[in-house]
Amino acid sequence: MRILTIDTSAVASAAVLDFDPQDLARTARVVANFATKDTRSHAEVLAPGVKSLFTDPVTEGPALDAIIVGTGPGPFTGLRSGITVARTLAFTWGVKLYGMMSLDALAQQVFDTPRYVDGRAVAPLAMADFVVATDARRQEVYWAKYSASAALIDGPHVGPAADILPVQVFGAGAGIYAQQLAAGGCVVEASFSQEQPTALELGRAAMRKIAAAGSLEGAGFLDSTPLYMRESDAKVPGPRKRAL
Amino acid sequence: MNQSNPLILGIESSCDETGVGLVRGTTLLTNTVSSSMEEHVRFGGVIPEIASRAHLDAFVPTLQQALSDAGVTLADVDAIAVTSGPGLAGALMVGVSAAKALALATGKPLYAINHLVAHVGVGLLDESIAAVYQGGQLPEKLGALLVSGGHTEILRVRSLASDVELLGATIDDAAGEAFDKVARLLGLNYPGGPAIDRLAREGNAKAIRFPRGLTMPKYMGTAEAPGPHRYDFSFSGLKTAVARCVEGYEARGEAVPVADVAASFQEAVLDVITAKAVLACKEQGITTLLLGGGVAANSRLRELAQQRCLAAGITLLVPKLSLCTDNGAMVAALGAQLVMNGVAPSDLAFAPDSSMPVTSISL
Ligand SMILES: [Zn+2]
């Protein structure tokens, strides 16, 4: 099975992964991967980045089994550029499109990262339920709570970091509000306090879902509706003030 | 690629319409538009975030509809054209991202196109005025007057593909925006243009003398020594004057003569617009003026422009309204001109530019 994943909930990223759902451990491989560092140039860089994953996108695209797009939460403009690209590619190539919550990518990465002591992996980074958080701007974070095996327990939410009750917190959102989180009894993993969701980790999480379900259809993916979590700021204007 | 009569797919998302048009050379195949206007009504104006959300959901269905209406497939298309500016940044991003994905998925060349110049190029698609364009060519000495909720400009068009110049523009609100704001002052619904146009027919345009922005000698100068804003517009002072006027009636406990206010306001806007456009034409040797933008729907604008152009010996061209408002066909029409003139396509890495100047016809 070959999938293209796209995530623009923070950085602009895309990846192609190939695997046999019956034997994930032995067959899973990253065919190609693209990710930016910056979080503000999605409309420029994403399409060239996706193009770079293929030798010939015109023939290889239609042969994909699925496109999976991160549906956020994340800053709206960037998020939309990834979902627009994913929807347009899926339509043009005639490939199935699924959505996945972007914070799942970070949770997958936490799950895959061991804790090192003296250069030796001694334990998983998260031993119990944990939270991943990204920057929601306006003094808030997008966050969700996962089990130690990276299964979603609660979320996604948007709100001040202070809303997060004492757990281990991972991700760029934790890095920004490390002091507030610590004050609330949370533990911020310094080695993981700048990480952002990426298409590569989203793809790894997707592969795990597909392998566990035995099929794409049964894997419990979302559709590609963006998880905005906030209304537009628009206010219906009140009645005009009269002069008398 | 068919370079003499190319099939172009055009994408427009600079404001609140999601447009996909298909054009072969100068022949319009289809012009499919999905508008989020209804969603903006209760806010009294276009809300950029709401427009962007609507573009995201409208794009693929609009594309599908356009292809099926025209009876063509993506494989038939020679090139893709997309509005890259000017316009609302978040709205532009959606159309640009979609167009890039379409180009990469199909391997077709992509043209990042100037929205304002596309408003001029659309004239080539209207059979009723194409005759004036003599076989798919623009007339010599062409100017354009673009009036909409997002822009108000006078352009000189020497060549659609390579030489367009901005002669004048609004320095604050767009004319259509002034209509929306004044409509709200008068308790009329959004969009304000049609509401004011209708009401103004019952009113006296000379009842109240509202200010004509940037018409004082210090701004105008003379033909030989032009002032700093000879061909420019300003509507924010006018909007304030209307507000003061309405408040005046209220303070005196009098009923606001809404029809007279609407008519007088409309006249103030359109008087300046048409007077300056005709002045620019006369002084710049422009003999044909093309009208574009949504405000071209305004009956008084058409009437006044026709009158004044006729008096000055200028030929006025008004494409049909569905081509004047923002749409994908106009983007495709300009794209076709670029292909036919051998202009190189854009790099896939281009950035949308919300304030793209008219001198930049494509990126
Ligand atoms: Zn326009």
Automatic annotation (TrEMBL), chain A:
It comes from the Bacteria. GO terms for biological process: tRNA threonylcarbamoyladenosine modification. GO terms for molecular function: transferase activity. Keywords: Transferase. The keyword Transferase applies. It holds the Pfam family TsaD. The keyword Oxidoreductase does not apply. Residues 35-153 form the Gcp-like domain. This is tRNA (Adenosine(37)-N6)-threonylcarbamoyltransferase complex dimerization subunit type 1 TsaB.
UniProtKB/TrEMBL annotation, chain B:
It catalyses: L-threonylcarbamoyladenylate + adenosine(37) in tRNA = N(6)-L-threonylcarbamoyladenosine(37) in tRNA + AMP + H(+). Gene3D superfamilies: 3.30.420.40. It is an enzyme of class 2 (transferase). One of its GO terms (molecular function) is tRNA N(6)-L-threonylcarbamoyladenine synthase activity. Keywords: Acyltransferase, Cytoplasm, Iron, Metal-binding, Transferase, tRNA processing. It is found in: Cytoplasm. GO terms for cellular component: cytoplasm. Fe cation binds at H115, H119, D326. GO terms for biological process: tRNA threonylcarbamoyladenosine modification. Transmembrane segments: none annotated. Its EC number is 2.3.1.234. InterPro entries: ATPase_NBD (IPR043129), Gcp-like_dom (IPR000905), KAE1/TsaD (IPR017861), TsaD (IPR022450). Its cofactor is Fe(2+). Binds 1 Fe(2+) ion per subunit. Substrate binds at L146, V147, S148, G149, G150, D180, G193, D197, N298. Belongs to the KAE1 / TsaD family. This is tRNA N6-adenosine threonylcarbamoyltransferase. It comes from Arthrobacter glacialis.
